[in-house]
Amino acid sequence: MSTIQTSINSLPVINELQDDDKLIVQTENATSTIAFKDFIVGTENTTFGNTIATNSTNISTISSTLFTATTSVPDGSAPTHYIPITINGVSFGILLSAVS
Q: For 2-19, how does the pLDDT look when each residue is reduced to its tens digit (9 = 90+)?
């Protein structure tokens, strides 16, 4: 009696995964499938996780700088937002204005 063997290399190749497509997972005790839509890779399992964390911190810092330094406009209209900067010991505020 002969055994038919199939190599992974002989399977067809696809270029894109859809939500309902399945991935094969070999664990210590069994072989199973998981739907692509349920396949989640945490940042701790990537080479770029630290970059994402650093950029998230930088975005929060920039947002805080932009939107916490506000003053009321004398005519009672919307507050003016500015970016505080210091050059040679002199404090400045770069004013931001919405244009409609």
A: 788 888 898 899 999 999
Q: What is the pTM of this model?
A: 0.44
Cα distances from 34 to residues 26, 42, 43, 91, in angstroms, run 11, 16, 19, 57
Continuous H helices in the chain: 49-68
CA angle 46, 40, 7 (to 5 degrees): 85
**Neighbouring C-alpha atoms within 13 Å toward the C-beta of 3:** 3
Q: In the 8-state DSSP scheme, what is residue 9?
A: G
How many whole angstroms separate alpha carbon 45 and alpha carbon 88? 44
